[in-house]
Amino acid sequence: MIRIYVLGQPYWASRIAQALDTCAPDVQAAFVPARSYPRLLARRRAAGRVVLVRAGFRVGATTPRGRLFDAYWSLLLRATPGAVRCHYWLGTDVLNTLEEAEAGTLRRAAVSSSRDDLHVADAPWLAAELESVGLHAATVPVPQPYPAPVAVPPLPGEFRVLTYLSADRFDFYGGEAVLGAARRLPDVGFDVVGRASDPTGSAPANVQWHGWVSDMPRFYAGATVVVRLPRHDGFGATVIEGLLNARHVIYNHDVPFVHRIEPSTTEMLVEALNGLRAAAAAGRLEPNLAGRAYALEEFAQDRLVGRLMALLRSAT
Question: Is 151 part of a structural domain of the chain?
Fold first, then answer.
């Protein structure tokens, strides 16, 4: 029996633990919330292999919380000799590491001490970024049960754009480029989820703000194109879900069956949208079935768990 304890960013760490516990044979996986850290440290270990995963809590952080977690992690490793040590990098943790490295404040000794541990990145571009600080990471997108419609919804009769803009990080998620494109394309509807209002006060009338929604399948069915243009990202959920719904996707990373634009400017977004809109007007734009087939296979929870477990087993 392999016992896996997942610590770190609660939203993602709990999902990683649940996926492992659900899909992996001979595995007991559990998310460990911060309140249970003392209990885990004091726990008597049962026979069997142990894996310790820190998800989204980066090694070498200079923040007080980061230093405290690194100290706790060291104690936990000493209390669990022989445990597999896994660092699961999700996105913002990589960005913060790169920014501290550039500023010269990164605790490089702490980072170097983890070099022989297993490092896993949510996306290939994150793995490439980690190489710049001397860490080699395998790539496994976070396993979770992405919803996929049984039947592919047809593309809507009206060309519409769906995007996610964070409630508190409008600029980070490419909000200015999206609004710039909406101004240049006044006859195209833009649906924004995640934010309930316009932070600029200058959004055109063709932009609708829906806030946090619980019925995303309806929005995917009503969209022709899904746009995601953050300054930095792991594997964006709206990209994966857009593909699963056979939608066309515009993103600023290389993903099969996705339209990549780089840099993520208004001009590049307008050009990409106009190309898709012209195809739709000519009757040549069909649902993105190739993208759906790719996403159904690539992001199936059991397949991702299998890839992650292969790495964990090879490290034991």
Answer: no
SS (H, E, C) 95-144: HHHHHHHHHCCCCHHHHHHCCCCEEEECCHHHHHHHHCCCCCCEECCCCC
Residue 269 gets which letter from DSSP? H
Answer yes or no: is 152 within a domain: no
Closest CA to 137 of 72, 205, 91: 91
| Adjacency order of strands within the sheet including 49-55 | 27-31, 2-8, 49-55, 84-89, 118-121, 138-139
Each residue of 228-267: pLDDT tens digit?
999 999 999 999 999 999 999 999 999 999 999 999 999 9
Q: Do 287 and 309 fall within a single domain?
A: no
Instruction: Find the mean pLDDT for residues 84-102.
Output: 97
Same domain, 276 and 305: no
Closest CA to 86 of 33, 29, 42, 133: 29
Distance CA 159, CA 227 (A): 13
Residue 160 in tokens: 């519409």
Asked if residue 270 lies in contact with residue 190, where contact means CB atoms within 8 angstroms, the answer is no
Q: Are residues 97 and 186 in the same domain?
A: no
Q: How far apart are CA 165 and CA 200, in angstroms?
A: 13
**CATH number of the domain where residue 222 is located:** 3.40.50.2000
User: Which residue intervals of the chain are DSSP H helices?
Assistant: 10-23, 37-42, 64-79, 92-103, 108-113, 124-131, 175-184, 216-221, 237-244, 266-281, 289-298, 301-315
Vertex 262 angle, CA 239 and 197, to 5°: 55
The verdict on residue 131 lying in a domain is yes
**pLDDT per residue over 110-139, tens digit each?**
999 999 999 999 999 999 999 999 999 999
